[in-house]
Amino acid sequence: MKQPDRWTVGPETLRMLELGHPWVIADSHTRRWPAGQPGQVVELSDSQGRFLATALLDPEDRIVARVLERQPMRLERDWLARRLKAAMAIRHGHAALGDTDAYRLVNAEGDGLPGLTIDCYGGYLMIQLYCAGWRPHLGMVIEVLQELLAPQGIYEKVRPRKTRELEAVSDSKRYGRLLAGVAAPEKLLVRENGLAFLVSLEYGLNTGLFLDQRKNRRDLMGRVANKRVLNLFAYTGAFSVAAAAAGASRVTSVDASSGYTEWARDNFGVNRLNAKNHDFIVGDCQKVLADLGRQGKGYDIVIMDPPSFSTTSKGSFNTRGGTSGLVAAALPLLSSGGLLIASSNHQKVTVEEYLKELRRGALQAGSDLRVISLAGQPEDFPYPVTFPEGRYLKYALCVKPG
After folding, report:
1. What is the largest CA-CA distance in the chain?
2. Which of 258, 275, 305, 325 has its CA 20 to 30 A from that of 240?
3. SS in 3 state form for 67-78?
4. How many Å apart are CA 373 and CA 397, to the nearest integer?
5. What gap in Å lies between CA 220 and CA 291, rounded to an integer?
6. How many CB atoms lie within 10 A of CB 297?
């Protein structure tokens, strides 16, 4: 097999690589690289010709190369199998999955396979490529997964480049495709924390269950007994189901999508929870908060886990700058001593920036707000200490003092 080509990086990339960061960002030096192809394996070196790392090329992306190894290597089956086995060992040894069969098996940079994620949904696997460099190697990935795990089927969810423009698109669009094995049901039943959820491996940008909130939903279940819960941006109702199953007196789920709201009702149904004992509201969350306030509604727990960016017919929401307004509108509805649970998966918003958003919202509402816990993603979403971008999920439990 041909040895990888060696490509020179500039001083800024050199510094980042020496600090252990796995990305090469396009700059004036990478623009002088020879024409390369996605999936090409290259050796990175400094201006003196000193070897730095082996990387996977994606020349059309902002991240033009991602580090596979800090030593010379070839992207072959044995190397890939070792990485996958190491990822499996982390889940088996540390993830405490219990009665859960929906979890992340490979978390890209966090498992030494940058730009590649693999999720387990029952007997099925879902691959997503965040780097076009993996496309030429997808066949090998599928073969090794079949050898190691023998799944019923392997799917890929295609990641469109401009997801913001697609946020308002109906989940009737097919973004998933079967790569190997037998097809899954249109709505596949999986388990998380002993509860049942319906997911779609074929339709929609997402599957209907955000796996990175599993541990936080389990924590919620210990806090909701006999409480009135308001779940904003409820999506398919995973937090709502967890709250209702754990004994919340009444759960109100709000989402702008009627389709997601029906999906949430179905999730109540598969858990034998009577949806008629709870409330489902289709509407823009900011407007619904105002309506609930005018009605004099009150809640013991308010959950807000919006997408980083969303669009409705009435306007748009963005985590950066939008969270404070949501907090300010929600706090008057929260009882004294109640919990505001605020979460964001926006990678570019740091924990410090997010806490400032919460602070602005509390000040705007003229309310005190105290953080009692700050969590992130669970153990099956690891990230290198040299890769701060990997710690993207913010989950803040805040008390409104009496």
Report:
1. 71
2. 325
3. EEECCCCCCCHH
4. 5
5. 26
6. 14
Domain span at 389? 210-399
| 309-342 pLDDT tens trace | 544 444 444 444 589 999 999 999 999 999 999 9
- Domain termination residue (choose one: 69, 89, 116): 69
Count other Cβ atoms within 10 Å, centred on residue 354.
21
Q: At what angle do helices 238-245 and 258-270 cross, to 10 degrees?
A: 30
Extract the tokens encoding 332: 């008057």
- Looking at the fold, whether 85 and 32 belong to one and the same domain comes out as no
Please tell me the total count of domains within the chain: 3
Residue 137 lies in a domain: yes
Is residue 106 in a domain? yes
CB 214 within 8 A of CB 193: yes
- Pairwise CA distance, residues 139 & 116, whole Å: 13
In a domain, 203, yes or no: no
What letters, b where the CB count within 10 A reaches 16 and e where it falls short, cover 218-257?
bbbbebbeebbbbbbbbbbbbbbbbbbbbebebbbbbbbb
pTM: 0.92
Sequence letter at residue 217: R
Residues 106 and 43 in one domain: no
Burial of 161 (0-12, 13-18, 19+ CB in 10 A): exposed
Is residue 280 located within the same domain as residue 317?
yes
Q: For residue range 117-131, what is the model confidence (pLDDT) as tens digits?
A: 999 999 999 999 999
Closest alpha carbon to 43 in 60, 62, 56: 56
